Amino acid sequence: MSKVGKIAYKPVGILLGVGAGAIAGFAFKEVWKIATGDDDAPNATDEDRGWVEILAAAALQGAIFALVKAAVDRGGASSVRKLTGRWPD
Question: What is the pTM (predicted TM-score) of this model?
Answer without folding.
Answer: 0.81
